Amino acid sequence: MRLQFPGTGGFHPNERRHTASLLLPEIGVALDAGSGSFRIGGRLQTRSLDVFLTHAHLDHVCGLTFLLVEMLRGEIFPVRVYGSRETLTAVGAHLLAPELFPVEPDFEWHELTESIALSDESRLTWTSLTHPGGSLGFRMDWPDRSLAYITDTTAPGDYAAFIHGVDVLIHECYFPDDLAEWAAETGHSSASHVAALAKAAQVQRLVLVDVDPQRADDDPIGMDQVRAIFPNTELAEDLMEIEF
For the chain, which end, N or C, has fewer CB atoms within 10 Å of the first or last residue's CB respectively? Predict the structure, then answer.
């Protein structure tokens, strides 16, 4: 199974990173729809697309509007958007308000249920996370592999059992350790806390996303400190692809 990273940054795009979006092109699943979503159309290997939204903050949903042209051309259809009731209501009422976006895409809206069976024998489950305005973490399980996506929350949180033992953990890491005091204040995570969580949850592989866009250098979070705690860690870059 391939996992692609159309966007790996937080808050706003910079010269190096667009905001959050993950893509499983072979099964037509996207996790979040940040500004990197303009890259989805050319990489999708299915006609339909299922988009699962963690929450309604703009850096995670603005890219829904970028799908309009492919939808109007019939290149991507249907597009099913999943989220909490609060998230779907906010996106429909605000992002897609006619005063902001004059052509409403023909999305299918689906409130998340406890567990969703996808087309390739995988099952998606979710858990609530602590973040201003709320957020969700996702886990996908296949018979022979597993993946979890945790963004916009403060590690370690109370979700270690939810992610326990996954093959790949995609986790936000907005702050380096020297700015850790900002994590709890903003509802984000810092480097060593994420690494310690991955170790405690006995995940196999850790991939970091949602980094501070004020840093466009090679190591915005201090990878040496992270790998000292959890060696099998990598920092995602836009357009990176991994196999799991």
Answer: C
Q: Is the pLDDT of residue 114 over 90?
A: no
Instruction: Among 1.10.443.10, 3.40.50.10540, 3.60.15.10, 1.50.40.10, name the CATH number for the domain at 2-243.
Output: 3.60.15.10
Query: What global pTM score does this model have?
Result: 0.97
Helix (H, G, I), strand (E, B) or coil at 35: helix
Q: Which residues contact 179 (CB under 8 A, 6 or more apart)?
A: 190
Buried b (16+ CB within 10 A) or exposed e, 24-47: bbebbbbbbbbbbbbbbbeebeee
Tokens of 184: 């709890």
**Cα–Cα distance, 84 to 111 (Å, whole number):** 5
